Amino acid sequence: MKEMKADILHRIKQNKANPKPLPDYAAFGYDFDPREKFTEVMEAVGGKVLHQKGKINAAQLANLFGEGISIYSGVEDFSSTLDVSSLSPKDLPPIEVVILPVQLAVAENGACYLDESVLPHRVLPFICQHLIFVLEAKSIVGNMHEALEKIDLSQQGFSVFIAGPSKTADIEQALVIGAQGARSLTVFIRQ
Amino acid sequence: MSKHPQKAADFIANEARTDWHDQSLWVVREKRDKLAKGIAEWEELRELASQIKDHTLSHLDHYLEEFEKNALANGVQVHWAKDAETHNHIVHDILQKQKVRRLVKSKSMLTEECGLNPFLEKQGIEIIDTDLGERIIQLKDEPPSHIVMPAIHLKKEEIGELFHEKLQTEKGATDPQYLTEAARQHLRSHFLQADAALSGVNFAVAETGGVTVCTNEGNADMGIHLAPVQIHCMGLEKVIPRQKDLGVFTRLLARSATGQPITIYTSHHLKPKPGGEMHIVIVDNGRSEQLGREDFRNSLKCIRCGACMNTCPIYRRSGGHSYDYTVPGPIGSILTPGKDLKKYSDLPFASTLCGSCTDVCPVKIDIHQQLYKWRQIIAEEGHLPKAKAREMSMAAKVLSSPKAYRRATKWMRRLMRFLPRPLLYLNRNVWGKQRELPQVPRQTFKDWYKHEGNES
Ligand code: SF4
Fold first, then answer.
1. For the whole model, what pTM was predicted?
2. Parallel, antiparallel, or unpaired: how do β-strands A176-177 and A112-115 relate?
């Protein structure tokens, strides 16, 4: 094993080109309003954006998904209908709706960032049928450069940008929402 | 020898299908253009991406070691594989130690390149490819025909038929929504049973020791987070220096690939899940040699977006399978001769050298120039097919003598007007197949210039 690595690195050392400089660059600017742009992009990829003053209530959820659904909630507004911490990840499929706070969102592409600290199980935002994000309006940044200046990936074992409901176009390029992950994504933006 | 022309001929035999394939890809190319134009600094981003990759490749040993050091500190087990065979054995060893019987995989062109599936299947391990496109071709027992859209060559009727047979969907059902739903249910049951999950890697960040995986369906994450063992296989060129560099590459990747602002999921895996284990396999398999080929080393900058395929007039009309390699299209045609010059000697000729690939490439690889360079090497080493070599040497004689050239054009202009079609489109004239010769001008440019020049 050690030899294999040494061997590969040796070949690289022999074969690589003369050193080229690493460019430095600052975040690029933009000429849009981040909140408007975020909404526009998120809707274009099939997500739903709702502006929310105050807490999310049961009636709103029932409106979106019907009564009697199983919910995991990672926000204070709302309590979970079942205790996922006592379940193993493979017992999670019955969960229909997962509500998570989002640390930051990116206007240019609709990507919402969250890390393991809000996830009792890493698979939770993928295995649920419907995903809800709660986002503070002031946490929307313009582009990816800005986002990556603000977060530190090394702080967490797992983190993810999610930019819409799961989708595929693998059958004749026809867009189908709800491939293998969440079938829908609703983002509540809180002022 | 010369498999591409033959396979391409088989593909275009069905004209309606060729047109459909061509159109499907062109639509993706147009989406890419729209998204690229929406970013004022697009060209700057391409330049930055290119420079970051150039820098990384010129310090590749350093960054790989930094990456490994940080990954180890994160509790990840790092493995090095010099070739495909070693890669397959490493993966098998990991699976054996954990007594894994069932493995779910998400899109990894590298494992395709290494032939991992057949290898593991022989050892009695069940492998399920979980990206919808990959699952379709796995069920059909075919290789992918595109690196981003592996089943782009199939019609929904064929997929419906396949799913009817394998997943018991209704006979005759072709609705993509319905078929995708069937696949969702089918794959969910496999995710829940898997003992291990394997994924490819889009970017490996040296600074953090983490790997970034970009997908749209969510299948990679479903697999990785549900199974106790997670394995990420990466070509050694996937490393990038800093977290901030992800900004440049994620902005370019999905826009170039499918015309989306970003893939739906951009996941960063740094540490094993609680109670689980995480492995990263770093694979060479010819890459360090490619690094030593000065003219071709920058093909290692490729981020596998597929844009060069979507735009290539040859790829669009000959289909991915005609290239007979995991990575088809323009980029495949410059990677393959380095692997086996003789076997793939026809691929650098599967191009019009129009340069469209180079224009769209987000990391600015000079693809068409490399194709041209390979052609020269292939000719020098005597791997040209006989007919091509004969035509080339004839052309060389004519083109190197102005007098002979003038004489030839004069005769050709006359001849082409009067020669009967059957003679012009003779079987031996491969250029006449599926092509119409242009209208012959009455005058040569030279004559026209002489004439016009005298008048003004
Ligand atoms: S060569 Fe360039 S355009 Fe082609 S797949 Fe690689 S990065 Fe994309």
1. 0.92
2. unpaired
